[in-house]
Write a structure and sequence with these properties.
Layout (H helix, E strand, L loop, with lengths): L1 E6 L11 H4 L4 H11 L4 E6 L3 H11 L5 E5 L8 H9 L4 E5 L21 E4 L4 H10 L1
Parallel strand pairs: 1-2, 1-3, 3-4, 4-5
Bound molecules: 1,3,4-trihydroxy-5-OXO-cyclohexanecarboxylic acid.
Length: 137
């Protein structure tokens, strides 16, 4: 089982960025705990602040991996290109948001990804990534 966690812009700052919304844990620390918990699966991680790199990564793994867990950050709400990439690949993609985007600003309520996602996990903190992994098992 090959799964990719793909994080978008500003998520490299997890642990430092708006801790009241996103918590105090860095993603690299959290990812280590996921690797330990799911040592039986091939779990990889990629983060980029650049829209095209996220699209390239979706193309790269999207015809061979078993699942993608995508938190596209703010691009969720703006990027037709990432939405089209999710639609165009074969690998099922779970959309994850750490915060509950529906009790935040109105501009966070629309997602270009949701329509083509296999599922959506919103508002469970970092645990959302774990829940997404479990959905593929
Ligand atoms: C986010 C929610 C987005 O609206 C925001 O731009 C992010 C993080 C989340 O995980 O809650 O960067 O995707």
């Amino acid at each position: 089982m090959k799964l990719l966690i793909l994080n978008g812009p500003n998520l490299n700052l997890l642990g430092k960025r708006e801790p009241e919304t996103y918590g105090n844990t860095s993603f690299s620390d959290y990812f280590k705990s996921l690797e330990e918990k799911y040592s039986n699966i091939e779990l990889s991680f990629f983060q980029s602040n650049i829209e095209g790199e996220i699209i390239d990564k979706l193309h790269e793994v999207g015809f061979s991996y078993d699942g993608i867990i995508l938190n596209a950050g703010a691009y969720t709400h703006t990027s037709i290109g990432i939405g089209d990439a999710v639609k165009g690949i074969e690998t099922p993609t779970i959309e994850v948001h750490i915060s509950n985007v529906y009790n935040r600003e109105e501009y966070r309520h629309y997602s270009y990804i949701s329509k083509n996602a296999a599922g959506i996990i919103v508002g469970f903190g970092l645990k959302g990534y774990d829940l997404a992994i479990q959905s593929f098992l």
